[in-house]
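Summary for the steering committee. The consortium agreed at its last meeting that each partner would contribute one worked example illustrating the joint modelling workflow. Our contribution is presented below. We chose a case with several input lines so that the handling of multiple components could be demonstrated. No manual editing was applied between input and output; the record is shown as generated.
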Amino acid sequence: MALNVNTLKVGDTHEELVAENLSRTQIVQYAGASGDYMPLHTDEVYAREIAGYPGVFAHGMLSMGATGAMLTHWVGDGRLTKYSARFTRQVWPGDDLLAKATITNIINENGEVLAEMDVLTTNQDGQTVISGKATARIDT
Amino acid sequence: MAAFKFPVDASQIMLFARAVGDDNPIYHDSEYASGTETKGIIAPPTFVQASAQYDPNFPLRPTIGEPWFGSGKEATGTPKSDIQPKEKSEKKSSDSARILHAEQQYIYHKPIRPGDDLSVTTKRGKSWEKEGRRGGTMRFSETITEFRDTKGELVVTATSVGVTTGKAVSQD
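What follows is the complete predicted structure of the assembly.
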């Protein structure tokens, strides 16, 4: 289901809990699916003893992917034209991630109507882990 | 400029969607997907990351026959000389621990579908430095990756910004 210009307005929001008690196993699953085997994400011994982190943390791209699910559930499949994210804080095993999109602008471009939105993903403490933007084609 | 092929198959799309926690049937159920606007299975928004599997020189995958910098008998499998954070070498070593993903951007030109045979080219973009509060001097560099179909048309343009930090990023 895509969004429609007749019912959508600037300020409209959508949010989803895209991770709950994030597991180390899901981080490993993402490493396998993406091919990014960086030990910082999958190797607790390495992350602590060599890299000096408290432990493993999730790939930024896992959070961006999970946040993308919130976006496509709202704007519809195959409707995104742009999606960007800044990784502002690490995501740790056990974290919950709440992803939210807010419509900032509705524009006409090359005969299409596009909704522009801010994207924000926060952890269970309300800290921002992803701050981004997205644009999607909407129905008229 | 590096170049390689990225063949897309349905199982890889399913595994990727699972890994990001998305159970949308558009990513694994062809019968359902054929009845939707996309008329078939498509890939989720960040799927092109999986092209790393096909990049022959991807540094964050163990290379058969070569030491890996993750733990084995010891906390790292590469010699001590390689793991000094002060070293600014580009070689595959624990130095990679100081390279973090700062930013990612995608422009979608058309959906990716199972059976697509994508050509991947990467080029360096801008680079800049910044004094960070949490990680010492931070060096940013941009990599632009273009995914094209067999007709040579753009499918996805991906821009990645990596940051090399002087020390482990503190949590404060």
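Chain A has a mean pLDDT of 97. The longest strand of chain A covers residues 97-109.
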